[in-house]
Amino acid sequence: MVVDNKGIISYIRVLKEDLMIFRIKPSEGNVPDFKAGQFVTIGLHVPSEGKIVRRAYSIASPPEQKNVFELVVRWVKKPVPGRLTTELFNRRELDEVLWVKPTGAFTIDDKKHDGTPDNRRMVLIGGGTGLAPFISYALHLKATNSKREIVILHGASEGNDLARQTRSDECSALPKILSARMKAELFRGVERGIQGGSILVSVDGGSDRGFV
Ligand SMILES: Cc1cc2nc3c(=O)[nH]c(=O)nc-3n(C[C@H](O)[C@H](O)[C@H](O)COP(=O)(O)OP(=O)(O)OC[C@H]3O[C@@H](n4cnc5c(N)ncnc54)[C@H](O)[C@@H]3O)c2cc1C
After folding, report:
1. What is the pLDDT of residue 148?
2. Stronger pLDDT, 37 or 171, i.e. the higher one
3. Which of 21, 50, 91, 116 keeps 20 to 30 A from 184, CA to CA?
4. Ligand 1 nearest-atom number relative to CA 77
5. What are phi and psi of 127, to 5 degrees?
6. Which protein residue has the closest C-alpha to ligand 1 atom 19?
7. Coil, strand, or helix at residue 18?
């Protein structure tokens, strides 16, 4: 049985008309334990459906962040407006949403099967908001002082989307992930194998700004 929990939208950042960052703060207690790469199910009452519609969203914040879940959500507009995202994009800060505890198998293990630490470099490939779980991985590795390297190959349908998702330095969950064009913004970590186009290279950094 689905167990809905209540939460408040504590922060919204508009990256562009159809791309937003949402932070959801549980109304009671902290964010429950989860693993980087898992998703949370968000539920909203959709009047036209006369019921609660629930959809999965990858958690971009790391498990160590206990105040809020951070999500990067695209408003689905075609061929008809998406039910949950259209409702969500009409919500404001402090509005209530429902959430179901995180789950999902798209996680990374800190240890190999034999129990030894897994320090192998990870190469992660994703597009659009598919960047979100990788952000959670990166911030988790940073929070645990891991020296493990990750390389992210990220594509987006529009160059602007890419820039917005990666340059949003007011967003604490978006680590400094670099595109070839943003080389000058390297702030720490090790730059590796930058290639052209929309390929990004991650560093082991992340913003230290707090979550609200
Ligand atoms: C594990 C997981 C993680 C995810 N993480 C993210 C994430 O981090 N960020 C993110 O933005 N999304 C993510 N998603 C996708 C998300 O769950 C939703 O599927 C998405 O937001 C669309 O939901 P919606 O209710 O707005 O659209 P829906 O109403 O479900 O519509 C889906 C599609 O069907 C079309 N459609 C609906 N009804 C009709 C109709 N009658 N005729 C023709 N076409 C129709 C819509 O136009 C749309 O293209 C994730 C999905 C999964 C499974």
Report:
1. 84
2. 37
3. 21
4. 47
5. -130, 155
6. 55
7. coil
Cα separation, 119 vs 122, in Å, equals 9
Residue nearest to atom 13 of ligand 1 (CA): 57
**For residue 81, what are its two tokens?**
């407006």
Task: Determine contact, residues 139/63, Cβ cutoff 8 Å.
Answer: no
Measured in whole angstroms, how far is the alpha carbon of residue 149 from the centre of its chain?
A: 18
pLDDT, residue 206, reads: 36
pTM to 2 decimal places: 0.84
Query: Which atom of ligand 1 lies nearest, measured to the CA of 86?
Result: 26
Q: What's the CA gap between 45 and 56, in Å, rounded?
A: 15
Mean pLDDT of 47-69: 96
Q: From ligand 1's centre to the CA of 93, what distance in Å?
A: 22
Q: Report the pLDDT value the prediction gives residue 60, as an integer from 0 to 100.
A: 92
The dihedrals phi and psi of 117, each to the nearest 5 degrees, come to: -60, 140
Q: DSSP H helical segments within the chain, as ranges?
A: 83-89, 132-143, 159-167
pLDDT interval class at 179 (50, 70, 90): very low
Q: Ligand 1: list residues with CB < 6 Å.
A: 39, 53, 55-58, 71-74, 76, 78-80, 82-85, 104, 129, 132
Which of 85, 135, 157, when mutated, tests ligand 1's pocket best, judged by the most ligand atoms within 8 Å of its CB?
Answer: 85
What is the number of other CB atoms lying within 10 angstroms of the CB of residue 154?
22
DSSP state of 87: H
Is the distance from CB of 55 to CB of 152 less than 8 angstroms?
no
Cα atoms in the 13 Å half-sphere on the side-chain side of 39: 17
